[in-house]
Amino acid sequence: MSMRMLLSMLRRHSLMPGLVMLQVALACAILCNVLFLTWQKLEPMLAPSGLADKDLILVDQVVSPQRAWTAAEVAAGVEALRRTAGVRSASAAFGLPMVNSVLMDITLQGGNGAKVGVNGYLGEGLVQTLGLQLAQGRDFLPAEYRDFGMGVSGYPWDAGVAQPVIITRSLARKLFDDGNAIGRTLSDPSDKDDAGYRVVGVVRHLLRNQLGQATDGRADNTVLLARRIAATTLLSYAVRVDPGMREVALKGVKATVKREFGPLMGPNPTARVSFYSERRERAFQSQRAALWLFAGVTLAVVIVTVIGIMGLTGFWVQRRTRHIGIRRALGARRADILRYFLVENLLIVGVGIAIGMLLAYLGNGWLMRHYELSRLPWTFLPWGALVMVILSQLAVLGPALRAAAVPPVVATRSV
């Protein structure tokens, strides 16, 4: 049957095709947005941390209600932690992965003019302590570190000298067209008096601590700055331990923190000491719950769509049994009948998908206004369309096979 005749038949009997089209449009709109929301939750969970995950202990919320910690106390804490049994390396830090109590936001502009918002981590020896892998360049030199803390000048480098910085490989590709960042300078568009940052090293990965922004390829938007933690009110440490002495080292680190800082933390200390892997597990609990919810919604949409298309198409086939029989009697093969219903369904579903993608985009705009959701990338629309095409073709296959299997002598009877 020609496409012209097929369209003519659909126009004469528009109710059933219209119902299928409406169902596909709604299902496609829902599915596109659910796939996008699922990916938004899943992307930070799949992003590599770049750290020595299982061997890294994080110490944070070391707070004294009486006064700020002095630079000498911060340094003494580092030395005490390094002497703890099972500890390989320790660093005082300002900002760490999975530590949301301290956040540093910086906007960087690269050689290609791109502006990228990043999270900054400060601390001496963080490359070694965090277990980061250098892809290019080098670690900071001891002479490059400057103090950071209360009472310290905001820009302790010489006038006109860019401060050294280590960025991720992902950032290097975003900020420079050729991806080669070593020795090149980054600027902060918000600070016209700043001399900028000179890239001395590039690490493979380093997960940012703002997990809500670790989406759309932004999980590695992170930099290390050559700052040594001095006087501070909120103290954090990163501690890397021997893999064979994890539990021994954890107990030792807790005891060291209590001994070094306990007297000034008061009767109800707030310090948290735990492995990075445990923090990551807890941080993603709500993400996993949301994924289960989205999986349930997706499954419900799929089941309702398949059942709906099968029911409507089955009824539509039954109504045209005489027509099918006449075509079989005139020489149409089973393959011709099967192909006819598949093409017809594809045409109906195609129109429904086009409407559904428009509804998905409009629905995402509504969600953006009311729930601060990110803009739906256009790439999710063809994926949702592909899923709907596959589901619809599978759903119509059963009724189409039953129609193709009816002998002409039976199909031409009155119905």
**N-to-C order of helices and strands:** HHEHEEEHEEEHEEEEEHEHHHHHH
How big is the Rg? 31 Å
Number of helices: 12
Span from first to last CA?
23 Å
The main β sheet shows up as: 11 strands, mixed
Q: What's the overall average pLDDT, rounded?
A: 83
The tally of domains stands at 2
* Proportion of residues in extended strands: 15-25%
Pfam families: FtsX
Protein name: FtsX-like permease family protein
Main location: membrane
Membrane topology: Multi-pass membrane protein
How would you sum up this structure, described in words?
By secondary structure, the chain is an alpha+beta fold. It contains 12 helices and 13 strands. The mean pLDDT is 83. The relative contact order is 0.19. This is FtsX-like permease family protein. Residues 298-398 form the ABC3 transporter permease C-terminal domain. The chain crosses the membrane at residues 289-317, 337-360, 380-401.
Short description:
The protein is an alpha+beta fold and 415 residues long.
List keywords for this structure.
transmembrane helix; two-stranded parallel sheet; alpha+beta; eleven-stranded mixed sheet; 415 residues; ABC3_permease_C; 17% strand; 13 strands
Break the fold down into its secondary structure elements and pairings.
Layout: H1 3-12, H2 15-46, E1 56-63, H3 71-82, E2 87-94, E3 105-109, E4 115-123, H4 126-130, E5 134-137, E6 146-148, E7 163-168, H5 169-175, E8 185-186, E9 197-203, E10 222-225, E11 227-229, E12 234-241, H6 246-265, E13 272-275, H7 276-283, H8 285-319, H9 321-329, H10 334-371, H11 380-405, H12 408-411
Parallel strand pairs: 4-10, 6-11, 7-9
Antiparallel strand pairs: 1-12, 1-13, 2-4, 2-12, 3-4, 5-9, 7-10, 8-9
Helix pairs in contact: 2-8, 2-10, 2-11, 3-6, 8-11, 10-11
